[in-house]
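Task: sequence in, structure out. Protein: Chitin synthase III catalytic subunit.
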Amino acid sequence: MTRFGDFKPLCRDVPSYPWCNLFYRELQHRAPAALLGASFDTKSAPVGINPKCGIPRTGSENSIGNVANIIACAFSIVVTLWLIYRCNHRKAAVGRVELRAFLVVYLFTLPLQLVTTGSFLQQGSTTLVVFTAIHAGAVAALFWTLLGNAIVATQVVEDGTPSSLVPFYFLTVVFMAGTTYVSLDIAFTISSTLEPGNPKDSLHSITLFVLTSIWPGAAALVYFILMGWIVAAVLREMRPLIYYGLAGLLFILAQLAFFLLSRPICNGTNAKIDGSFIATVLDTATVIVLYLAWRSITEDYWVDEAYFPR
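Result:
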C-alpha cells in the first residue's frame, strides 16, 4: 500500500524524477538486491528506481542522454538571464529586488536540473547525489522566493528595505540549507533522526516529500491567491489578473506534462526523450508571464514633478 511520503511509484512511473537519485545511492549501499532491471547496471542506469521507462546514461546503448531537456534548460537559461537584465532596469518598480532574487534562484535551478536529469553522471556516484541534494534545496528555496514576492506585494513591509530583505534572504537560506541537508541525509544515511527505518523503507521520506512536492504546490497556491486579491480587490485591474491566471494555468500544465506525459513519450520514442522538456518549457513560460504580470502593475521609473523657479 502506498503511504504518504512514498517515492517508489514516482521513481518507477515518472522518468527523469530527480529525487530518485538520492534513493538510488541509499539502496546501492543498504539493499543492492532491490535494484533490478534498468537500474541494475550503474554504468547505464537511467534516472529512477527500477523504472518502467528511462533514458539510459550518456554513452550507453548509443544514448545521448536527455537531450530534449538539455536543450530546453539551455534555452531557459538564456531567457531567464534576459528577464534578470530587464528587471534590473526597472529601478522604480515595487518588489524589484525580491523578483530579481526569484529569477536568480530559478536560473540557479536550471543547470542543476540539466545535470540531475540529463543522464550524464553515473547513478550512485557522490557527485550526482550532491548535485541532486543542492537541486532539491534550490527548488524549495525557489518557492519561498515566489511566496515572498506575494507577501512583499501586499506592502506589509516596504520592499527593498532591511525589514523586507533580511527575513526574505534568511528564509531563502533556511529552505536551501534545510532541504539540502535532508537530501544528503537520505542518500548517505548521515543519521536516522529524520527518517528512521530499514532498507525496505528506503523509498519513503515524508520530510523530502513535503519539501519537494507539498511545499511548492502550497506556496504557488498561496502566491496566486494573494496576487489575485491584490490585483482584483486593491488595484482593481483586469489585465494583470489575466496574466496571473495564465501563469497559474501554465504552471499546472507543466506539472501535468511532467507527471502524466513523461512515460508515454518515453515509451513512444524508445527511451530517447521524455516529457521533462515540455515541463521545463512550460515552467519557463510561467516565469515569463509572471514577469509580465509584475511589469503591468509596477512603474518603470520615478516621475519627478516639474520644477518651475519663481
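The two ends are 83 Å apart (CA to CA).
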